[in-house]
């Protein structure tokens, strides 16, 4: 849609408010709502003013005037607001009309422009699989007098002995993959989420209960171009959270909210096209992958330690990325091993669906920054012809846990903490600066924000420390 079509939609659908949305550096959305009668064509030319100093990672108060520039193509009718409301995603501009270099959405768009400028491809397609939990209750506190969290779910295995009405159908620890009702208590919720996603423009492919107890879920939606997929992922999270709230429940995309059971990842499928021609397919080659696709994988794995500072940017991320479990911590590629950082889907694959799957990321990532960084790493691999086979990244099609100690020792792992990932990003970020997609200021700002989070966590007394040390 363009601006005129938006105004026509406002009139025909009797829209009363228009909600303009932006995203901060960390990936949280923010909005301002304007009565529909005050929105006209000039709104799409001049934008909407806001105070950038109030958002994490943006401007200081001395230079806080900024502009939201609406993207008409992103518009959808909000299903959660009583008054008919149209939501529109915006880019962030400086007052002089230039792109604000720290705007995550603009960084994603610059990555797509850079791809076209290289002449290697005309489009990059991304398809994230964002897992989440739906809980019935969550409580947490972190203060000088105490620190704790407590979660609960009607289907959690720890409630088999709960008093009162208890029907006994609980999801066993690591036993939640594909159970039918009544064990799966959340089919209706996922159905409603999927319906609203479809109405908002997402092409939902399937949904199901995931492996963990206590309401782990997955809903897959169809891939799209890089920036549009990042838009869609934020819309996806918005719908998931609000439908859960409607049912009196709460949804979280934290990677590891439960101790001792599977965490939530965000496997990201990626491919390059030149017009309608897929560039990652070569019949008869390993996993039917082209040399370009292998070099793309080489770039992802070579830069993975630095990438992970953007794709797994929380201290909680590394509670999921623990060696010895199913978590994709091994910096290898494989056509069948789900503990590999890069997996090549081979079931029911056509030339146009040939793709690579980076399994390490999680949904605490800002999708604009994470997808842009993955593309830049892959393009660096293509330009430098980084062959993952020659660099020692596989393929490894055996069960990694059954390898000998010598074989395991040869496999590199992801960083063990957010601090280590940030160290890697400080040492390896030139590939992100190509084409001015990321700037040194953006990277330095990101590292500063994340190191501050680490300090907060490290300085907070953990209940486990009482268990370990109180009586020493």
Describe it.
Mg(2+) binds at residues 129, 131, 210, 218, 267, 357. Its main location: cytoplasm. It catalyses: L-glutamate + NH4(+) + ATP = L-glutamine + ADP + phosphate + H(+). L-glutamate binds at residues 262-263, 320, 326, 338, 359. By secondary structure, this protein is α+β, with helices and mostly antiparallel strands. It folds into 2 domains: 3-94, Roll (Ubiquitin-like (UB roll)); 123-461, 2-Layer Sandwich (Creatine Kinase, Chain A, domain 2), CATH 3.30.590. 32% of the residues lie in helices and 22% in strands. The chain is built from 14 helices and 18 strands. A hairpin with a 2-residue loop joins strand 8 and strand 9. It is globular. The relative contact order is 0.12. The model has no long low-confidence stretch (mean pLDDT 94).
Structure keywords:
single chain; 472 residues; alpha+beta; Ubiquitin-like (UB roll); 10-stranded mixed β-sheet; 6-stranded mixed β-sheet; 18 strands; 32% helix; Glutamine synthetase; magnesium; ATP-binding; Gln_synt_N_sf
